[in-house]
Design brief:
Length: 140
């Protein structure tokens, strides 16, 4: 398609975290082990599920599914309690937001896709499980 044919087709970018995390787009966070990436994203998930600012930056309220491949349910629960305190839920006697879901997958096969030498992608069983979980949550 020619670039000229795109004229007038641009739509504004939607954001989950304003100017940082685009809506409906895969986003990755990289860093050394143990620096707090999981805690940071769990806090972000809480803020997005509530539509509250994340460290002063606006969010779009939406359903959040967090898939934890390294932390078991006990660790997730400890972190959730700390995040509830951080976000003020503890003081208000409220629980975590209803739009925030967690799924612990420690010790399970979590590969979504593998690739052949030709570069052809082959979806793995977890891909179907994740897709089904997302569809079920969207129906709620």
């Amino acid at each position: 398609m020619s670039a000229q044919s795109l004229k007038g087709k641009a739509v504004p970018q939607e954001w989950v975290l304003d100017k940082w995390v685009p809506y409906r787009t895969v986003t990755a966070l990289f860093g050394a082990g143990g620096v707090g990436k999981t805690l940071l994203t769990h806090q972000l998930g809480q803020c997005v599920a509530e539509g509250k600012p994340f460290f002063g930056t606006g969010t779009t309220k939406t359903l959040v599914l967090m898939v934890f491949c390294e932390d078991d349910l006990a660790e997730i629960a400890r972190r959730q309690e700390a995040i509830d305190k951080w976000s003020g839920h503890h003081n208000m006697g409220r629980k975590a937001p209803e739009l925030l879901y967690v799924w612990d997958r420690v010790g399970l096969e979590n590969i979504l896709t593998t690739f052949t030498a030709d570069g052809e992608g082959k979806r793995q069983p977890f891909y179907k499980k994740l897709s089904t979980a997302v569809e079920r949550l969207k129906e709620r």
